[in-house]
Write a structure and sequence with these properties.
This protein is mainly alpha-helical. It has three domains: 95 residues; 88 residues, no CATH class; 64 residues. It is 58% helix and 2% strand. It contains twelve helices and two strands; from the N terminus they run αααααββααααααα. A two-stranded antiparallel ribbon has the order 1-2. The longest helix has 23 residues. One of its GO terms (molecular function) is metal ion binding. Pfam families: ADP_ribosyl_GH. Its cofactor is Mg(2+). InterPro entries: ADP-ribosylglycohydrolase (IPR050792), Ribosyl_crysJ1 (IPR005502), Ribosyl_crysJ1_sf (IPR036705). This is ADP-ribosyl-[dinitrogen reductase] hydrolase.
Amino acid sequence: ASGGEGEEDDEDGGATKSARDVAYESSLATHPGPLAAEACAFLSHLIVRAINRPARDSTTAAKFLDATVEEYLQILEAQPDGGTGAKAQLRRLLSSSEPSDSTERCWNWKSRSLDVEGTLRRRGRRYNGYPVSDRYYGSFSFDGLALAMHCFYCTGGLNECIHRVVNYCGDADTTGAIAGQMAGAFYGMGGLDGTWRERLERWDRGGQIEARAILLFVAGEERAQTEAEAEPNTTKVKKHTRKVVKREGWSKARAAQ
């Protein structure tokens, strides 16, 4: 069962659920385990919710994440297998309530600081069948997701979030990418420091990042139209798929790339 299965009624006609399903299946192409797939499904859900916030929404990152997590916990609870396997593990992570002696205490993303050192020490030499190393902390999908959530939750801006996550070191390119997607979708292009934006534009002189986002949007529009034409009886539902990325949300979509 994919991370998006469930009977919840998405306000966007199922677009967010579709994003979760695609993210789940995409993850399986490179990571055979269901844990990474569940993490990707949640991350895609968060990104879609962030991109589609009202233009003048003043909600803080912490309140947004609290609400999104609560919503997702309800989605997991409604699924037949929501209390077992990978979904149960994801519920543990999202709950941010691990005991102080847990080998997963680093999943307490709401804490003002993460006990990474204590976690690694508690895990010993091997964890989940793999060697434990501070150099690669965050490479395990749930560790990386929890760290990114922590940095997004405990900071007040895009740049601050990225600075915080990469300075935890470990698998910083991975954790930075996860946190960057969260913060980019939430704060948008306008949240980037001017120097960072200048360097990004200098590096991407041809505008390929923006072009890629536009092409993805157009592809989604065409797919939604094709599905609506193929299933005329479900047009009312299918036409909302295009809402995954709104036209007025382009600045957020661009920063989330």
